[in-house]
Write a structure and sequence with these properties.
Blueprint lengths: L1 E6 L4 E8 L3 E9 L1 H5 L6 H23 L8 E7 L3 H18 L3 E5 H7 L12 E6 L4 E8 L7 E8 L5 H11 L6 H9 L24 H13 L8 H28 L3 E5 L6 H13 L4 E2 L11 H12 L31
Parallel strand pairs: 1-4, 4-5, 6-9, 9-10
Antiparallel strand pairs: 1-2, 2-3, 6-7, 7-8
This protein binds 5'-O-[(R)-(carboxyoxy)(hydroxy)phosphoryl]adenosine (KG4) and zinc ion (ZN).
């Protein structure tokens, strides 16, 4: 099955062609970062306008790179939420129009589910039930993921932990901004932290309650804000790199301690890490080391698949299309879409092609 994936939930216009949910034939990502850098964050109206300009050429390029045309595509998968409403509508409407005019089935994919599927390309044999930690600019969620078939064909999700305030990526972006660094802050802090001492500054451990599996990052962010207010010198090197390394370590420790607690309570067969922040070098390294020490299997995607892309949307969409879960032409974008306990479309709501 050849599936065209389309992703426009935030500030990347992306399209990809994936065979059988496994083999990436093309993966085109146009980042709008230059447009938004001047504003220190994504400007929703500018994002929608740029998606409109790019969506046609990016989809064409994905088809060209894969050496196929629309006739050879068996179905189209597009992100329908969560994300920025204007951005989502561009990709979803484009996909709906292609499906309607070419009589192709449509899969409406939850962006967070897409991130979980980013692990499936290199680790199709990953074991379930799994604990999936999705860390992005908008979300920090811990899911209990089950599979009846034992693989990625039919996953169901239960949210077991989430952030009570900022998402991890949001904390990176905000801390970068207050240190005068460019947007998005994650990659910049990651780079500076490599030269810094992660023990230079101490942050109090994030404590919510003993039983909760929730996260919180605003305390760490506020601590950085207070430190910088008291000492402007922290915005200069070499202290800035030390602060970046220490902040990063506090975020990694907060993510790890809750994930370990969840693993001890729920006894998953594997741990999966995904979402834009999963590109973080220290997070990948620390999780790899600590899961190994704890005797837990650990999977994460290669770098190009961690930040927003359409290959992961095509992979999640392929599973839906194979199950016959076609989205209707009346499918709407939902900026606040949740990944529910079961993300299945009931048979009564399926759309006949
Ligand atoms: O998944 P993603 O591309 O978009 C959303 O769905 O939000 O995640 C974007 C987030 C941004 O907050 C960005 O700063 C963060 O991922 N990020 C990183 C790194 N690369 C991207 N955070 C830490 N270290 C990185 N290397
Ligand atoms: Zn994302």
């Amino acid at each position: 099955m050849l599936v065209l994936g389309i992703e426009t939930s935030c500030d990347e216009t992306a399209a990809a062609v994936v065979r059988d949910g496994r083999e990436i034939l093309s993966n085109v990502i146009y980042s709008q970062v230059k447009t938004h850098t001047a504003y220190g964050g994504v400007v929703p109206e500018l994002a929608s306008r740029e998606h409109l300009l790019k969506i046609g050429p990016i989809v064409d390029q994905a088809l060209n790179d894969a050496g196929v045309n629309l006739d050879g595509i068996d179905g189209i998968a597009a992100t329908s939420g969560p994300g920025l409403i204007g951005s989502l509508l561009v990709g979803l409407t484009y996909a709906k129009a292609l499906c309607f005019s070419r009589h192709k089935p449509l899969a409406a994919v939850n962006h967070i589910e897409g991130h979980i599927y980013s692990v499936s390309f290199e680790h199709p044999q990953a074991e379930f039930p799994a604990l999936a930690l999705v860390v992005s600019g908008g979300h920090t969620n811990l899911f209990w993921v089950e599979s009846q078939s034992g693989d990625f064909r039919d996953l169901t999700y239960k949210l077991v932990g989430k952030t009570r305030d900022d998402a991890a990526g949001e904390a990176y972006d905000k801390v970068a901004k207050l240190l005068g660094l460019s947007y998005p802050g994650g990659p910049v802090i990651d780079r500076l932290a490599k030269a810094g001492n992660r023990e230079a500054f101490r942050f109090a451990n994030v404590k919510i309650s003993d039983r909760s599996l929730d996260f919180s990052f605003s305390g760490i962010k506020t601590a950085v804000l207070r430190m910088v207010k008291e000492n402007e010198g922290l915005k200069q090197e070499p202290l800035r790199s030390d602060l970046c390394a220490s902040f990063q370590e506090a975020v990694v420790n907060a993510l790890w301690s809750t994930t370990l607690k969840a693993a001890q309570q729920l006894q998953p067969k594997s741990i999966m890490l995904s979402g834009g922040v999963a590109a973080n070098s220290r997070l990948r390294e620390a999780f790899a080391q600590r899961t190994a020490e704890a005797g837990l299997k650990f999977y994460f995607p290669k770098l190009i698949l961690t930040t927003d892309n359409a290959a992961m949307i095509a992979a999640a969409g392929t599973s839906k299309l194979m199950r016959g879960e076609f989205a209707g032409i009346d499918t709407n974008a939902d900026p606040n879409m949740r990944l529910a306990i079961s993300d299945r479309v009931p048979a009564s709501k399926r759309w006949k092609v």
